[in-house]
Please model this.
Amino acid sequence: MNSTPTDSEVPAYLRGVAEDFERMGQEIASSTRDSVFEAVTSLAVERVPSARACSITTISHDRFVTAAATDEVARRADAIQYELGSGPCIDSIVEQAIYQPKDLAADDRWPEYGRRVVEQLGLRSMLSFRMSVESAGVIAGLNMYADEPDAFDDHDLAEGLLLTTHAAQAVAAAQLRERSENLQRALDSNRDIGTAIGVLMGLHRLTRDQAFDLLRIASQNANRKLHDVALDVIDSGTVDVTPRGRA
Model:
């Protein structure tokens, strides 16, 4: 086990943590993975050599689900916990704690879970963290699995904390970016719909409500988005309200 840094070592230790955090952020940002969670699980097994597999658990519709995993072993280990409703992963999320069972075969906190993952998957130790991403509307936990008892040391614990902290920030940033993009799309759509209403009002001497009603009728009849109909009106100056599907 790595020892806790002494007072004289703290400045260098903190500098190292800051450098690791910055480097980790760059690695996540440059990842080609489809999601932040997938990038984090992949990075976890790279930075923590003792980890055979890694996963991230989230809560969706009041159920625990695996949002990302490095392999099928991690998914199966997660699934056993979900089935039992008990395990380091679930408890770390629910209790907002870090769990580090050193030998799952002998840990009396999760006897059934330990027995099954040892017998079925050959896993003997874990590291589980709750990820603080509530600001993004996400409840999640990071799980590392190892084949050997007492596989994780203090350095691995610190790496896990860095990963969960950075992942939480990355998820929050992604959520904010998505909301901003959705807002911009909504503004663009509303602007085009307003322009189409103006076109119909000017060309056909309609009131605003009448023009909007024609757009809605055309959208309904053609089973098309209102925005798409509006773009057609802007291009053509007309709107087709002929009912579709008649024999």
